[in-house]
Amino acid sequence: MKNFNYNSSIAKKVASLDAIMNKSEQIKLIQQIINSGILGQELLLNFLVTRCIVQKKKVKFLDGLIFEFLYFNTSDYIKTKLNYHFSFGLIELKSYLKLNYQPLQDLLISHNFQEADKLTQDYLCLLAGLDNKSNRNWLYFTDIFSFPSQDLYILDKLWRIYSRNKFGFSIQRKIWLSVNKDWEKLWNCIGWTKNGKSSRYPSEFLWNISAPDGHLPLCNQLRGVQVISALFNHHTWSQDEVF
Q1: For the chain, what is the domain count?
Q2: Cα 11 to the chain's mean position, in Å?
Q3: Confidence band of 36 (pLDDT split at 50, 70, 90)
Q4: Which of 5, 39, 141, 199 holds its CA 20 to 30 A away from the CA of 124?
Q5: Percent of the chain having pLDDT more than 90?
Q6: Cα end-to-end distance, the chain, whole Å
C-alpha cells in the first residue's frame, strides 16, 4: 500500500507539470521526479512521448526541459529509451532551402553551445546564399531580408528549446524591445559588454546554461548594429507561435 501511494504521488507530480507555468517551479518539480528513481524517470519519459509523438503537440519549453533532464540526469536504460523515441531530437527540421540542421540540433542537445554558435553563423551565411566559394563569410544587413522565415524560425526554435528558453534570436529581440531598443542596455543585459567594454571572444563569453538570457547566439558587431537590427526586424517574429 505504501508503494502504491508513493507511485501514485509521483504520477500526480508528472501530470501536474502541464498546469505549472513558472519556469523555476517546473525545473524544481522535474528534478524531484528525476531524483525519485527509475519509476519517476519512466513516467516522465512516457509523458514526453505522449505529448510529442502520440498527441503530436507543438514542442514547447516544457518538452525541452524534460528532454534535457532525461538526457543528462538518468541511467543508461532511460537514455536508451529516450534515444529510441527521439533519435534525432525533439524538433522536426523542415527547411525551405533544404538545409540539414541536424548537426546543430545534436550540438544543442549536448549543450555544446560554443560549437553550436559557430555552426549557427555558418547557417546564417548559407541563408544569405554564401557558401565556401564565396568571397566573404560575413553578413550585410541587406542579406537578412532574403532569409526564409521557415529557416530562421527553425534556428531560433532549436536554440530556445534546448536552452530552457534562454537563448535565441527571439529571446534577444524581446530583451531589446524591453529596453526600448537601446543597444547599449541590450549588450549589458545579455552579457556582451562588461564595464562598458565589449567582451572578448571567446574567453569572456559564457558557453553554458548559466549565461544570461539572450547571451547566445552571438552576432558580430564590428560593422555596427545594422545586421542584428535587420534580424530583429525580420517578419518572422510577427508569428505568434514564435513566443
Answers
A1: 2
A2: 27
A3: very high
A4: 199
A5: 86
A6: 44
Regarding whether 78 and 9 lie in a shared domain, the answer is yes
Instruction: Determine if the pTM surpasses 0.70.
Output: yes
Judgement on whether residues 110 and 213 belong to the same structural domain of the protein: yes
SS (H, E, C) the chain: CHHHHHHHHHHHHHHHHHHCCCHHHHHHHHHHHHHCCHHHHHHHHHHHHHHHHHCCCCCCHHHHHHHHHHHHCCCHHHHHHHHHHCCCCCCCCCCCCCCCCHHHHHHHHCCCHHHHHHHHHHHHHHHCCCCCCCCCCCCCHHHHCCCCHHHHHHHHHHHHHCCCCCCCHHHHHHHHHHCCCCHHHHHHHHCCEECCEECCCCCCCCCCCCCCCCCCCCCCCCCCCHHHHHHHCCHHHHCHHHC
